Amino acid sequence: xxNEFKERFIKIYRENIRRAGSDKLLDFLSSDACDFFTAPxxxxxxxxxxxxxxxxxxxxxxxxxxxxxxxxxxxxxGLEFSEESVAIxxxxxxxxxxxxxxxxxxxxxxxxxxxxxxxxxxxxxxxLPYGHGEKSVYIISGFMRLTRDEAMAIRWHxxxxxxxxxxxxxxxxxxxxxxxxxxxxxxxxxxxxxxxxDKK
Length: 200
Fold this sequence. Notes:
The protein has about 200 residues and is mostly helical. It has one domain: Hypothetical protein af1432, CATH 1.10.3210. It has 9 helices and 2 strands, in the order αααααββαααα. The protein has helices at about 1-15, 20-30, 50-70, 70-75, 85-90, 135-140, 150-155, 165-175, 175-200, and strands at about 100-110, 115-125. A two-stranded antiparallel ribbon has the order 1-2. Helix 1 (about 1-15) packs across helix 3 (about 50-70) and helix 3 (about 50-70) packs antiparallel against helix 5. The radius of gyration is 18 Å and the shape is globular. The mean pLDDT is about 90.
């Protein structure tokens, strides 16, 4: 399944992102120096398994595309975003998570039997502690330029769930509609699409 997600990610990326430097960024994501296509999206919440980060990015892309196609979104924003911008912010918003999850094991006691066993899990080890959204912007900017709208969308995609001043978050989401749209898509993917999939 992870290979299917990787193939789809690369297909969407190549069809929509043509900006100078985008090819080098994709080469980096596909290289041995980066675990984007094998990393989880979290240690124990959404998509907390091998390939989960790529899968989550695609889920956000699908949610963002779907949301922006609604009449409500068109009325709210009164503008359209380019296919390139939509692909960039959704597919790349969580690059901050690359190379931060390390596969490990831990001992867990079965409450029914009282037997301890080793189970796999991911340790979080951030070797580039630069924040969340801002770290993604920083990584992307090392390869290609972002528009201000794209940079703000990626920077503020966590919305009010982060630790930043609430007024600052509100101002950013009000000033940059793509940031609000990405935040909504990320919440939908994390809290509904992926949560439902986990319960199957």
